[in-house]
Amino acid sequence: MADFHQNGNVATLHNLRSSDAETLSRELTTFSQTRKISLILPSLFSELEGEALPKILDELAEVPYLHRVVIGLDRADAEQYAHALKFFSRLPQDHVVIWNDSPRMKAIHARLEALGLDPGEPGKGRNVWFCLGYMMACKDSAVVALHDCDILTYSREMLSRLVYPVANPTFSYQLAKGYYPRIGEGKLNGRASRLLVSPVLLALKKVIGDRDYLDYLRSFRYPLSGEFAMRTAPLPDLRIPSDWGLEIGVLSEAWRNLAPQSVCQVEIADAYDHKHQPVSQEDSTTGLSRMSIDICKSIFRKLAADGTVFTEEIFRTLKATYYRSALDLLECYYSDARMNGLHLDRHREERIIELFAANIWQAGQVFLDNPSETPFIPTWNRVHAADTALMTDMLRAVADDIAEFG
Predict the structure, then answer these.
(1) Beta-carbon count within 10 A of 34 CB
(2) What InterPro entries does its record include (predicted)?
(3) Counting Cβ atoms within 10 Å, is residue 8 exposed (0-12), middle (13-18) or buried (19+)?
(4) Which of 76, 269, 396, 405 is 20 to 30 A away from residue 216, measured at CA?
């Protein structure tokens, strides 16, 4: 992917293979003397037993510029939490494991619910939100990065390239979004991005006309990547979606709160592979099926907030237009895969397109039935305004959990 194309909407920072990883690391170490860099790892306990996370820790242990690593741990009991503390103890950086299911953290949840600030159901969005709150309560980081814990092809260069645009004091970027080709095991992956997001944005432009927001989202080469880095100043006003629209939601928040010149995308890897979600064709509450509905709702809500009027007729037309656009793009992906010696199952992918078309209609019906739905976790600024002691008490709860079980 070594090209130099710029789309004109957000800056694209390529890997032109003209510098090495160690050079970036040395520069970041210099920047970190005055601009502390921290990392968030949202994790399920099951990922501690997987193939990817131990290798990720091996790489992170060699990163010299990280100030702190904050791990959000979901779906763990007390014994598993104690194991997680030992598992992450090999990190040489200052690090903390937030046990989201601990009695102390559940008490923090209860305080939020009593204030009408429910952080939502357990999931990646809520996990990230609590990690961000912990990071802000520490008040000592200027840059925060986030990536998943299931990356099979992880290297520390990915992190360096991700944080460099927002850590470099001569750059004006507030948010950097990672991108990469989704290939692995001889296959072209990235189904949700290829078969849903790209064609649905193209279809929306045809159905509702030009929108700056649509052009903005279409500028990102991989809008569903789970890797991004931000300067911490915008974080208190960041609204994190509680459903599977997290990645689109963060980009939408950047669109709402930041100048276009403050956002960039950066190429962080030549190849990327991680855990693949099942399609879940028969169950719209899990897998790619659930993800497709949440992503569509997130886009529809943002467009409605900007003044777009949606009707059943528009969603019916959108479904048909999406289906045609997706099939046309599938021809491009098939040719691209074949030319690069990769496998692409056209029959299976057409079935996924049919599922996504039905889910676009379903997402539209959910939106029309409840257009005022706000599945966003409250901002940390609002939490602090409602309970000025909560963030400090959360720091104490995490410290007490570690003292008891570590």
Answers:
(1) 8
(2) Nucleotide-diphossugar_trans
(3) exposed
(4) 269
